[in-house]
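Subject: sequence -> structure tokens, single chain

Hey, anyone have a minute? Need the predicted structure for the following. Not urgent.
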Amino acid sequence: MTTPLPATPVPTPYDVDTSPISLTPSSGADVDPIWAAVVRETRTRGNDIHLPISLAYAERLCHAYPAAERLLVRVAILLHDTGWARVDEDRIISEGFSGDWRTSAIRYEHEKQGCLIAREVLPPLGFADAFVDDVCAIVDGHDTREEAKSLEDALVRDADRLWRFDHAGIALASGWFRMDPATYTDRLEHEIVPELLTEAGIAIATAELERSRALLKTAVLR
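Reply:
Had a minute. Here:
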């Protein structure tokens, strides 16, 4: 069951942890069987870095928004980009990160493949059909749909974006977009922060961006 989405950016009365994400890796082993089922899918497009970091951000956001269905958020973010493993790898960079990349056909394709993977791996692990449907409703459209459908959807979307603000995310994603780190961090500030749907996400992104810029010397190396 999903939670209705309030007006965005969604406020929170709780303290937001803006410390480096490496200090709070994802906790608990309950989703380890899902990780084990998608190891092969994590070996494409840096997913073995992107997905665990995004899960850690998702859990941090869940602390700030306890009304959200925590397990749904965690499973959806774990699986959301696994579909990249089932598309033409040569097209991932050429189409998925250039030109009008947000509406490129390959992005729609990876979302559909991600839903297929979710429907393959989750039922054998004991997840109910209704839960799998909720996961797929988030995965399908997480890059291409303009609006979030629920609070859980919004948290997944923000977590998917927040990893880009960490220095590991900058190292990977700046190369995908063929940008140097200084140019890429400028893009994060001007394009990605305005897309965030939660006040907690904005606070985390702002703190991470400041640290990453200082670490990477982007004021000088540009």
